[in-house]
Amino acid sequence: MYTSSKPRGESPVSIIGAGIAGAWHALLFAQAGHAVTVHERSDARMTESTSHFAGGMLAPWCEAETSEPIIGRLGLRSLDLWRQHFPDTPFNGSLVVAHARDRADFERFAKLTANHRRLDAQALRRLEPALEGFRDALFYPDEGHVEPRRVLPELHAGITKAGGRIEFGSDANADDLDGVVIDCRGLAARDTEHELRGVKGEMIVVETSEVELSRPVRLIHPRFPLYVIPRGDGRFMLGATSIESEDTGVSVRSALELLGAAYVVHPAFAEARIVEFGSGLRPAYPDNLPRISVEQQRISVNGLYRHGFLLAPALAELTLGYIARGVIDNEVMRCA
Ligand SMILES: Cc1cc2nc3c(=O)[nH]c(=O)nc-3n(C[C@H](O)[C@H](O)[C@H](O)COP(=O)(O)OP(=O)(O)OC[C@H]3O[C@@H](n4cnc5c(N)ncnc54)[C@H](O)[C@@H]3O)c2cc1C
């Protein structure tokens, strides 16, 4: 990390996209005293964003199984920022369990990740009584989760409270905007970020009063981590596939795998009502790492891949540090 000699001053800032990346940028810039305008092409329900379909897990330790150390570094900083700005965010940990046949993968997951405790059946039942079918689990006590469809409106309200403006239904073009422009368009930024690709993630929302969970539960799966996240009011999100495809449908095979995982976590999910099938395209660069690209007054923040909720606060802080003091984080930023 180094500081460039050019201080950036307190310029007005336009942000394109009010998904998790744009929303965190707008919040931190507005709180730092910048005149912020956010342009979002969809309406306030944000159904055109990938963020709308996310699990919202803040799980840097579990994610270490498949991701680079940079995800952990930024993720840990983000946990602090979530705690600081949204003190009600639940940080009651996450659990990893496995079907008996996936025992070897469970042990591998334990080896590749840190900051967990092994719970035996009794300790697991004390923590999460519904998981009585498992003989043990890995518990990551410091992980948290947010409900994307609740937290995005909270972020948007926070931006307005800090003096920023959000214009929904505004399909913006960076060339038409003056001052500092921060492009947080996710996959739609492919016209300028040519290396981006979409990685499909499918999810299902179900509803039942027969199962109670207090924290996300991951089920070890040979191809991608499957999980059940409690959403409150008897609703659960089942996620998520990870498929190199930009088709946005939900396949029968994926639905079977997601529903099957829920059934393994608790057989009462068999009677749950299906509320929604959905999918989002995760914006990813070839290395699956996030990137802040700076070209004079234009900044692009993209490639949040499967970690948007985990990384957005820390990335926004880095962008702010660059604009305010010229600080450059060489691992994440590319300056033209
Ligand atoms: C099923 C699934 C589960 C996931 N689970 C997790 C998880 O548990 N934890 C985690 O950290 N991450 C998770 N992710 C990843 C996360 O959702 C993404 O990394 C993140 O949503 C990307 O955010 P973004 O703001 O870059 O893009 P988006 O959320 O897509 O936001 C971009 C916004 O820009 C707007 N836009 C585009 N073009 C324009 C324009 N010209 N003018 C105005 N607005 C424009 C779009 O309408 C959109 O709202 C998951 C993803 C999926 C699909």
Which descriptors would you attach to this protein?
336 residues; alpha/beta; 8-stranded mixed beta sheet; 7-stranded mixed beta sheet; 19 strands; 29% helix; disordered N terminus; binds flavin-adenine dinucleotide
Describe the structure.
With 336 residues, the chain is an alpha/beta fold. It is 29% helix and 26% strand. The protein contains 8 helices and 19 strands. It has helices at 20-31, 60-63, 69-85, 103-112, 121-127, 148-161, 252-265, 308-325; strands at 2-3, 13-16, 36-40, 57-58, 94-97, 117-120, 136-140, 144-145, 165-168, 180-183, 197-207, 217-219, 226-232, 235-239, 273-284, 291-295, 298-302, 327-328, 333-335. An 8-stranded mixed sheet has the order 6-7-5-12-13-14-11-15. Helix 1 (20-31) packs parallel to helix 6 (148-161), helix 1 packs parallel to helix 8 and helix 3 (69-85) crosses helix 8 (308-325). Flavin-adenine dinucleotide binds next to helix 1, strand 3, strand 11, strand 15 and helix 8.
Q: Tally of extended strands?
A: 19
For the largest beta-sheet, the strand count, sense and barrel status come to: 8 strands, mixed
Bound molecules: flavin-adenine dinucleotide
Q: What is the average of the pLDDT values? A: 95
Q: Percent range for helical residues?
A: 25-40%
- Outline type: globular
Oligomer: single chain
The proportion of strand residues reads 25-35%
Derived from helix and strand composition plus strand pairing, the structural class reads alpha/beta
Unreliable segments of 5+ consecutive residues:
2-9
Strand order of the largest sheet: 6-7-5-12-13-14-11-15
How far from one another are the termini?
Answer: 16 Å
- The whole-angstrom Rg is 20 Å
Tell me the series of helices and strands, N- to C-terminal: EEHEEHHEHEHEEHEEEEEEHEEEHEE
**Number of helical segments?**
8
